[in-house]
Amino acid sequence: MAKIYRAYAPASSANLSVGFDLLGIAVRPISGESLGDFVTARELDDNERGNAGDGLLLKTEGRFVSKLPEDPRQNIVYDAYQLYADRLNAKGLKIKRLELTLEKNLPVCSGLGSSAASVVAAVMALDAAHDNFFGTRGSLELMGILEGKISGSIHYDNVAPCYCGGMQFITGEGDDVSESVPYFENWYWVLCYPGLKVSTAEARSILPAQYLRQDVITFGRRIGAFMHAAHMRNEALAVACLKDVIAEPYRASLIPGFAEARVFGSALGSLATGISGSGSTIFSVFTDEQKAKQMQEYLQRQFIANEDGFCHICKVDPVGAYVETIER
């Protein structure tokens, strides 16, 4: 009986104002909807041929499929297949001939970890199809390399929470890429994508090459205090630290309506309003679900710019990515 492996990788929000390049969460809508990408892997029959070399038949579908390159060889899932094949070859093994189907439900360049979700789902589907040959640590390494191809350098602040779930702090020290951080389960994260594209490269180019010493000290103090507050369950201290001196002062100009959304959120009693990743998605945090719904309604009316936009009230997803096995 043939097996099909279907991997799901959720959306994620990185930086969270206080943790530029160091902090991220996996998210799931409270509505129960899926907010993430799927990649399905099926072994090809002998008479089936690929469209990205003989060994790979790459298909795409989903809400944002039109935003993907038409050439399958320009798709990050193709890159994942090639990298996985190279790593197997280095161990004297050969990759299976596969059909990989990417269901693209996250908008590209949105600040929701879109590329990370595709990368995580692709690697998980590939590893499942090869009896989990590389496992958790090996797969995470491949995910980081692939994400680096898109952003220009390896960043795990979306990949790690997407893969592992919860809130992840990127350590960059020792053998472990990240460490799980306790999060406040009573927080509602209102995440709104206006439908506008902000590339990671553009968002990085607008940042200064050097920072004032005082800003560096403030950043270090706040991320340290936030980590302490998370572990000690000190909500008031954690909230006080959700301020950005590294990226937001420069990136805010790339997101029309952000300043007004922050004012509205503050009037509603939000704990914080900031930029998700490099934007254009923004987040606003509440402890009151009804206030979160009021913020959602405002953003749907005033912040969303076109039909591609959407707004979800989310909680932190404790599970992260997973694979389902379907037997046919």
Describe the overall structure.
Helix content is 35%, strand content 23%. The chain has 328 residues and is α+β, with helices and mostly antiparallel strands. Strands 2, 3, 7, 8, 9, 10, 11 and 12 form an eight-stranded antiparallel sheet that branches. Strands 5-6-4-1-13 form a five-stranded mixed sheet, covered by helices on one side. Helix 1 links the parallel strand 5 (56-61) and strand 6. The radius of gyration is 20 Å and the shape is globular.
Main attributes of the structure:
328 residues; alpha+beta; eight-stranded antiparallel beta sheet; five-stranded mixed beta sheet; 35% helix; globular
Average pLDDT reading: 95
Query: What gross morphology would you assign?
Result: globular
- Low-confidence spans: none
- The number of helical runs is 10
Query: Cα-atom Rg, whole angstroms?
Result: 20 Å
Reading the helices and strands in chain order gives EEEEEHEHHHEEEHHHHHEEHEE
From the helix content, strand content and strand pairing, which structural class follows? alpha+beta
Biggest sheet features: 8 strands, antiparallel
Assembly state: single chain
What share of the residues does DSSP label as strand, in percent?
A: 15-25%
Q: Let me know the number of strands.
A: 13
Query: Percent range for helical residues?
Result: 25-40%
In whole angstroms, the N-to-C terminal distance is 6 Å
